[in-house]
Specification:
alpha+beta; 2 strands
């Protein structure tokens, strides 16, 4: 979300022709979905300059449910998310 806000601010200040977007793939389990979102956002902003980098060494480090399929995601209920969001505005 922060990167989208930053991209729109940069777009408004510098124009799409002067903007480039970066997507980092680090072996995350959600990689395909995140890449699709990156491309859709770049299309919506009409940004042509796009760079996709592979940071596979993060997967090698391990210890995260983001990259290790043997570690389950801890699902958070919507009520808990709302509570967490209210505590950290």
């Amino acid at each position: 979300m922060d990167s989208c806000v930053s991209a729109v601010i940069a777009l408004e200040e510098h124009g799409a022709e002067n903007l480039g977007l970066l997507h980092a793939s680090y072996g995350q389990r959600t990689e395909r979905r995140e890449r699709r979102a990156f491309e859709k956002i770049a299309d919506w902003l009409e940004v042509r300059q796009r760079l996709v980098v592979q940071l596979d060494h993060f997967r090698a480090i391990g210890g995260s449910a983001l990259t290790d399929k043997s570690i389950p995601f801890r699902k958070m209920s919507w009520a808990r998310r709302a509570h967490t969001a209210a505590r950290f505005p």
